[in-house]
Specification:
- This protein is mostly beta strands.
- Helices cover 0% and strands 50% of the residues.
- A four-stranded antiparallel β-sheet has the order 1-2-3-4, with no helix packed on it.
- The relative contact order is 0.18.
């Protein structure tokens, strides 16, 4: 398990799960029982997870397989798809959220 991070309310933990075939998923589990709430297969290699302040979304850096460059992606917990918020041609690395839970910014 990679990049574990507590949710803002401390009731969930998100982390990256790596499989034998080298694919990865972002997993959210409850801290009360440890059962996965949701498992989301990603397109690339996610790192540096960051919860939104309201706990409804996650952001991460992802190494794009096609370009070999970093991009920042966001995901609404439980949604089918994530969204790229940077174009992936720079060295974006550790996303953080604004205090109001809006778009992420990169440090």
């Amino acid at each position: 398990y990679l990049s574990p991070i507590w949710s803002p309310d401390s009731k969930r933990i998100a982390f990256v799960e790596k499989y034998y075939d080298a694919t990865k998923s972002v997993v959210v589990v409850t801290t009360a029982v440890g059962d996965p709430l949701v498992r989301h297969q990603t397109e690339g290699d996610p790192w540096h997870l960051a919860w939104s302040p309201d706990g409804r979304q996650l952001a991460w850096c992802e190494l794009a397989r096609e370009s070999g460059r970093w991009k920042v992606r966001t995901w609404v917990i439980g949604a089918e798809n994530e969204r790229t918020i940077t174009p992936g041609f720079a060295s974006e690395c550790q996303p953080t959220w604004g205090r109001l839970g809006g778009e992420t910014i990169d440090e």
